[in-house]
Amino acid sequence: MNRVIKKTISNVCALKIQRKSFCTEIVKAAGSTDGQFINEHEKKQTSSNNIQQYDVAIVGGGMVGMALACFLASMPLTKQLSVAIIDSNPALGSGLCIKKDDPPDPRVSTVTPASISFLQDAGAWKYVEQNRHAYFDKMQVWDYTGLGYARYDARDVNKDFLGCVAENKVLHSALLSCIKDSDLKKTIYPLRLTSMTLNPSSTSMVDVSVASKESSAQGQSAKLQLSDGSSIYAKLVVGADGGKSRVRELAGFRTTGWNYSQNAIICTVEHASENRYAWQRFLPTGPIALLPMGDKFSNIVWTMEPTESNNCKSITEEAFLKDVNSALDYGYGPHPTSSLSRNRDILSWFKMDQTLSANEFFEIPPKVVRLASERMVFPLSLRHANSYASKRVVLIGDAAHTVHPLAGQGVNLGFGDAYSLSRIIAEGIALGTDIGEVNLLKKYEADRKPANITMMAILDGLQKAYSIDFGPFNFLRAAAFSGSNYISPLKRSIISYASGEQKLPLFL
Ligand SMILES: Cc1cc2nc3c(=O)[nH]c(=O)nc-3n(C[C@H](O)[C@H](O)[C@H](O)COP(=O)(O)OP(=O)(O)OC[C@H]3O[C@@H](n4cnc5c(N)ncnc54)[C@H](O)[C@@H]3O)c2cc1C
Fold first, then answer.
1. What are phi and psi of 446, to 5 degrees?
2. How close is the Cα of 398 to the center of ligand 1, in Å?
3. What would the 3-class secondary structure string for 77-91 be?
4. Measured from the CB, is residue 192 less than 6 Å from ligand 1?
5. Of 40-54, 294-308, 393-407, where does mean pLDDT reach its minimum?
6. Is 241 in the pocket of ligand 1 (CB under 6 A)?
7. Quick check: CB of 301 below 6 Å from ligand 1?
8. pLDDT, greater one: 449 or 22
9. Ligand 1 centroid – CA 241 distance (Å)
10. CA distance 100 to 30
11. What is residue 206's predicted lDDT score, i.e. its pLDDT?
């Protein structure tokens, strides 16, 4: 045990010394007023021997890339690392100041209890709670045929809530605040990655006195070229640059996937009083979700055919609100209230272990009275990188996998990736391994790939199951609703799985 501790301490010291030798240029601290809180890189890069060297370069400072930086900042072993974050998104440089009464954004994420727990441990969640957010403890799912519905309640699994909805800008700014308040040696490059060399030659070194030391360090690094023509070196490049990842392309990772012939139209709406539940109704063209956001606001995520979505985006507010209220109520088919007592009888042998929510009746969602944001349209696709890791490069978040938003899992899978990768990097440091070593990075892939593929398969299956409008199949689907509503072990395992626990639902 003592030997492990000694080795860990000596590895951390070695890391610090190495970093010192890497940092041939002192980063310029940007003015600290008005949110300008993170070091920005020194734009003036006079000669090739002045190239900055980092332990980790995170390409893409979206929610997942920033979460990785937070997780690294929160562990004793990894907070010693020097980290470059590359993203031209102005929100990173300005440290966007969010106020609780700002108008709501159209882009939100449903964050699972598992992700909340990761973000709490890293110290980021408290910043989310300072802004608008909404925990919800109940959810109702039903379909347009009127044949079945399911109610889920956090109390079914002895939890306080099923999830929390927060605007993406709130999540992003919380992660930025967390990084700002940490000791992590971070440098933000407000640029884009343009190209990457994974085994750069050391011949460009000019300064003879430090050449051998630096060339050996750079031999163990990837070289990243940025959009202003400058370059940096990093021992590990993390592609957190979204669904159209440049890192993935440059590293030659192939993908498998397809585009759905569906778009999602999203917007924020207002009710006469606060909505406290999450609602999802499956319509013949795709699901519509109404998610509570706090302050009488809800977010709409409505999947439909591209022509319909374009139409929905351009019609008047009045016509759009009418369509939304109809889609969440009597439009397309009847309410499923009549099925409750019948299904309860059929499934009466499960009565002994009934969940609390199995006794709840169908409810009609609250009416929408006002459009509170612009309407945005997103094309939907499923894409998965065949491999997440090779020497010096690793993919996380949407760069590794893009999923259908029908269950609000995309960023949660990404947070899971970031959490896992941060632990694997810490393990590498503790063992004295090069953090860009492929064998180490493959451990991250082995940890995350099965979980991500399983979730992708479930979401794709659901998408397909609800795209079929065919009599006998509709009954099967209604039976599945009833089963998930009344069969308690199945219901509990569905809630736990959707909450981010790794255990699979019983039916798989
Ligand atoms: C309609 C809709 C609703 C959704 N709802 C939910 C939900 O409720 N819950 C949920 O969990 N998920 C949801 N998702 C999915 C979620 O939004 C994504 O999974 C998540 O945003 C992915 O985060 P990311 O950081 O991996 O990628 P992104 O958010 O795409 O961020 C990538 C970042 O990389 C930067 N970048 C790109 N290229 C470069 C480059 N060459 N150099 C430097 N930087 C670069 C970009 O500027 C960007 O900041 C939804 C998605 C959609 C479309």
1. -65, -35
2. 6
3. CHHHCEEEEECCCHH
4. yes
5. 40-54
6. yes
7. yes
8. 449
9. 8
10. 26
11. 39
Nearest-atom index, ligand 1, CA of 399: 26
Of 164, 188, 121, nearest in space to 422 by CA: 121
Domain 2-99+173-256+382-453: which CATH number of 3.40.718.10, 3.40.50.720, 3.50.50.60, 3.40.50.150: 3.50.50.60
pTM assigned to the model: 0.86
Q: How far apart are CA 92 and CA 192, in angstroms?
A: 13
Maximum Cα interatomic distance, the chain, rounded to a whole number of Å: 84
Helix or strand holding residue 19 (H, E): helix 2-22
Q: Domain residues of the chain, as ranges?
A: 2-99+173-256+382-453, 108-169+257-379+467-498
Q: Is the CB of 215 under 6 A from ligand 1?
A: no
DSSP 3-state of 384: strand
33-42, 106-115, 147-156: which has the highest mean pLDDT?
Answer: 106-115
pLDDT in tens, 240-275: 999 999 999 999 999 999 898 889 999 999 999 999
**Cα(161) to centroid(ligand 1), Å:** 25
Tens of pLDDT along 83-122?
Answer: 999 999 988 876 567 877 788 999 999 999 999 999 999 9
- Cα angle vertex 461, ends 455, 465, to 5°? 145
Query: How many residues does the structure list for the chain?
Result: 508
Confidence grade of residue 337 (pLDDT, cut at 50, 70, 90): low
State the distance from the centre of ligand 1 to the C-alpha of 383, rounded, in angstroms: 13
Architecture of domain 108-169+257-379+467-498: 2-Layer Sandwich (3.30)
CA-closest residue to ligand 1 atom 42 = 192
Q: Residues 6 or more apart from 430 whose CB is under 8 A from it?
A: 4, 7, 8, 11, 77
1 pLDDT band, cuts 50/70/90, is very low
Tell whether ligand 1 has an atom less than 6 A from the beta carbon of residue 87. Answer: yes
Token match 């099967």: residue? 476
What is the model's pLDDT at position 317? 96
Residue 232 CA, ligand 1 centroid: distance in Å: 24
Beta bridge pairs of residue 225? 195, 231
Q: Which residues does 74 contact at the CB level (< 8 Å), separation at least 6?
A: 121, 122, 123, 182
What Cα–Cα distance (Å) separates residue 230 from each residue in 193, 278, 368? 10, 47, 50
**In the structure, how many helices (H) and strands (E) does the chain have?**
15, 20
Q: Which of 126, 211, 208 is nearest to 164 (CA)?
A: 126
Say whether pLDDT at 432 is over 80. yes
- In this prediction, residue 473 has a pLDDT band, given cuts at 50, 70 and 90, of low
